[in-house]
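Researcher: Re-running this chain for the archive, since the previous output was lost when a drive failed. Same request as before.
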Amino acid sequence: MAILSTNEFRSGLTFAMEGGIYTILSFQHVKPGKGGAFVRTKLRNLRNDNVIERTFKSGEKFEEAYIATQKLQFLYRAGEEYRFMDLETYEQLALPRTALGTQGGFLKENMELTLSRYGQEVVGVELPTSVELLIESTEPGVKGDSSKLGTKPARLETGVTVQVPLFLTAGERIKVDTRTGTYISRA
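Model: Regenerated structure tokens:
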């Protein structure tokens, strides 16, 4: 592992600090007229997705964290596991449901995604920004309902529930934003 100094900080750099893995979102080197220089940063913890602001003395040292990415294709769900295939080696990989968090509810068979790892630990999953899913069940729509009147819960084919406009009915395909879990439009 390489050792980094705060003088080498740049956006996108990943390092280990206080038991967490952080990526630098933004940084600013500050050289005040009086006193020592320092670096003001905005960091994202890759383990829990929290964003923090932190100030470091100039020259502080940290261990660089190498994040490996892997292109995968989702194959199927097997109980509490998700099964994937590596698109380069064609090896199969099983991940527990907890590794994907809420994003697991938007996985469809044959969907491609990018998995980020720190050693053997999964620290990030990047799905396509939107996905088309079938509404399995929801309250029936009534003539005259419009998107301005409100929303109702709808259970989708993957088992996840999202809020949709009142006019949608079971059997319709919709687009959902995988980052926020919100309805975008009819498909």
